[in-house]
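Dear colleague,

Following up on yesterday's call, I've attached the two folding results inline so they're easy to grep. Please treat them as preliminary; we haven't cross-checked anything against experimental data yet. The first protein's sequence and structure tokens come first.
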Amino acid sequence: MTELNDPHIEQAVAAAAELRREFGIAGDLPFSLDLLELTEGQLGLPVCILDMPSSIAGAYLRKGRGSFIFIQAENFPTRQRFTIAHELGHHRLGHDTVLESYQDVGRDTADPREQQANYFASELLMPLEGVQSWIARTLSGAAPTMTDLVRLAEEFHASPPAMLYRLSKGEYPGVDRPLLDRLWDEVKAGEHLAIADQLGVEHGDDSISQIFDHGPRPRLPRTIDQAAADRVLGAVRAAFPEAANEEPLEAAS
């Protein structure tokens, strides 16, 4: 099991903290910038939001100066944000091309590269200091409930499963392993969805949310075309044979 003081995890967390500093975001605050616009506009990394095979969450394609991020269009914006941050972690940490199933993104994994990308995304969007501060300030030492988890996730523009992953990778007041196991069971049962609906939780109004709600989908930047999308689809199918009969990547006409 990874720990925060593992050297490769410290490297990933430091890289995320450095990126936050580059854009003037304090270490205890939610990530307030438009992640899609920042990734493409300021960091020069094109993001493609496509209907990929259903087993694929995203991909990072490293091609010298022409690297790309690919995101599953069917996912909710909160999930897409974490996946973009995850793929951005691969890019900032110098990793090679990777195609990712849902077991890689925001889940426990034995792959050190995926561990790094997950910790990078968590620290970028849900910084340890900020989450600790919210819990201490809001709950006063009480153990968080599923309702608290939904509210905490909303505060940091994240999904409850992503926030629960964040809680499993640090020390927080009132949070222990039995509580985490219970919350995971409740998330698997979909209890967070009903609570989010009751609370009127919205998924945001940034570029990712606008595309999800209004399109265009698929969404391709000007720097990629159908031929490039086809090459990635070939790599996806080679890496994940079970996806061979699923719906293909499609570029906008």
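Below is the second protein, in the same order (sequence, then structure):
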Amino acid sequence: MALNIAVCVKPVPDSKFYDKINIDPVTKTWNRSGIPMVVGDLDKHALEAAMTLRDKFQGKVTVFTMAPDYVRDNLVETLGMGADAAYLISDRAFAGADTLATSYTLAAAITKTGPYDIIITGNESDDGSTGQVSAQLGEWLGMPHVMNIISLGYHDGVVELSALTENGTVDYEVVIPAVLGVTRKVNKPRLTSVTGMLKGRTKPLTIFRVSDLPVDLKYIGLHGS
């Protein structure tokens, strides 16, 4: 069975420029203008997990992010790594979102373009590190969800995985569709080649504005946070 897999990524400020980040005195949100953005480290592990499943079982890997237009090159990088298509959710109406508003918006884009068999995220982002979006996505989408994943396999409609707990690990069998949050222990992301990056620039990359998505304005951006 070919798998249709979505991967949610978050471009984050390059750690070399963390001293340049400040808080907007009016909105109380992070001001990252002028700071180079990079694909989060854990997101690369999520993407690798998706591509490994696709390479073994066939199918498609689609990347999603909610961010300003200037992160387009970060999405091209994910396409260069091997993803098949990407969606950039970008509109001033989405700005200032907390994790609840972010996960709601991502869920709307995933619903619009799906269905997907598996949605994979990093366990947390490299900047906020809240560890909330993956589980919130599962709730918005009405799917089972597991985080802290250190190993991941698939067989006949069932995801087989191990997840870290405070006292060790727990093994799960999860019927798809499902949302999965992975840790760095799950794999080693493949390197991106020059040829891959050139191919990445030819792959589909779609930008969604607020009018393109089935969202309730009460639940998005700063107002919905």
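For the second protein, one point worth flagging: The chain has five helices and 13 strands.

Best wishes,
A.L.
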